[in-house]
Design goal:
Length: about 170
Amino acid sequence: MKILVMYSSLTGNTKKVAEAITAALPEESTLVQVADKLPIQNYDIVFLGFWIDRSSADNAMAQFMQQMHDENVALFATLGAYPNTAYAKKCMENAVALLPKDNTVLGKFHCQGKLAEKLVEKFKTLPPEHPHALTPERLMRYQKAASHPDEVDLKAVAQFAIKVREEFINKHH
Ligand SMILES: Cc1cc2nc3c(=O)[nH]c(=O)nc-3n(C[C@H](O)[C@H](O)[C@H](O)COP(=O)(O)O)c2cc1C
């Protein structure tokens, strides 16, 4: 069993989650950053991790996903929005839609990830009519996101990874 954990991460949130997946599958997994032309055909399962940018996978991972074929894939993501929302679900659906249909999606996981401080500072300067203007509701969301990914998220993603692996084995043996 060979498992690749490939991720794209701007500020480290998704990297943390990727590391938790690798730690949960210590014998079989290899951790790499997303890179063009990496040979992924030698792996039974490819975990793909990305941060949500404009409601879908970030550009580096989106480009990679669009040229993947015939792989068994499990997706994981971090995002600023609350995880248990229709919006978060929609972001993951947008990411799944990037994969050509000959790939098999084994599972999906997402959790909140703190917003880059610079971004929040920028939002503070925006006029009230701007879609990202810092309302009290948004400020609270950013403050809630600031502790994520936390220990609970990392435990949950470890369980997710183990489950994906077990289900794959049950199906193929
Ligand atoms: C340029 C930019 C765009 C973002 N767009 C979204 C978005 O559309 N929806 C969302 O929920 N979070 C958005 N976020 C928040 C990130 O997805 C979140 O902070 C994520 O955990 C960052 O992951 P990283 O640390 O691995 O880079 C955005 C962040 C940045 C910097």
